[in-house]
Structures are given as structure tokens and as C-alpha cells.
Amino acid sequence: MECSLEFFDYSCGFCKRALPDMLALLRNDPKLKIVLKEFPILGPGSIAAARVAVAVRMQDPAGKKYLAFHRQLLGDPGPASEEKALAAAKDQGLDMARLKRDMASKEVGDTLRETVKLASAAGITGTPSYVIGNHVVVGAVGVAALKGRIDTARGRAGK
Q1: What pLDDT score was predicted for residue 159?
Q2: pLDDT in the model for residue 2
Q3: The model's pTM
Q4: Under a CB-based contact definition with an 8 Å cutoff, are residues 89 and 56 in contact?
Q5: Rounded to whole angstroms, how far apart are CA atoms 112 and 117?
Q6: What angle do CA 148, 154, 158 make, to 5 degrees?
Q7: pLDDT tens for residues 88-116?
Q8: Residue 20: is the preceding peptide bond cis (ω within 30°)?
Q9: In the predicted model, what is the mean pLDDT of the chain?
Q10: Residue 105 phi, psi (nearest 5)
Q11: Which residues on adjacent β-strands are paired with residue 138?
Q12: Please, what are the domains in the chain?
């Protein structure tokens, strides 16, 4: 299974525009796995939404509710906020009392700090950014460019 990383911010307009690209790649390539990394760089609303998102993932090891939450929150126009993120989590039927406890946990803070370290090590300063193979792709470059980079990473460019 191939694995790529996407660094995103729930307030990022370009991330919102790139969401259909990620979904199309996943739909058309069952061997592809994209690990989503909350990288809240656009202010307090982004940070709050990222804390909710990490707490959602803690409750949903299979990832189905998290992906639905992610799609809903990135699909929402305008900047992210804790209120919007909590509403999206509630819409997925999560345990809201546990979610609020988890949001304040050391684990959530550690997860976000690790993402910042990973982004820094890769030279990532903006969103969306992708790590595909050994390459960093910055920006909402479109599904064709992402697929091309994935094919190159797999060693079958032009096949």
C-alpha cells in the first residue's frame, strides 16, 4: 500500500479547494493511503478545529467518522472555529463529553506538536502541502499533478 501525507488547515481556502482532489485519488486508487496531518497555521480558529479533529480521530480508529468529519469541516465555507468543528463532530455521532476531555489532553497537544516538527523537517510552511515518496508538493496543484507525482514515486511514470 502506498502512503502519502497531506498537511492541511481547516481555514485554508486552497485546502478546501483541494479536498475533491484527495477524494478522487482515494476513490480511483485502492492501494493509496493518504495520512491527513492537521497543520493549523491560520490562527486560533484553525488551532481549535485541529484539536477537535485529533480528538475525533482518537475516538474513531477505523477513520470513517473522522473522514466524514473532515469532509464536512473542510466543506464549510469560511474560517474554521471550535464551534463549527464541534458541530461537525456531533453530526458524526461522537461521544461529545469524551471529545471535550480528549481535546484538552496531552495526547492532542503532543500530536499537533509532532506534526509541526514533521512539517518543519520537510520544509513545509504552507497548506495544502503533500509528501509523496521523497518529494514535497506545495499547493492545490490538482488531481493530475498529484497522480503524476504518485506514479513517479511508485516508479512507473508514463505507464
Answers
A1: 47
A2: 65
A3: 0.93
A4: yes
A5: 9
A6: 45
A7: 999 999 999 999 999 999 999 999 999 99
A8: no
A9: 94
A10: -80, 160
A11: 129
A12: 2-153 (3.40.30.10)
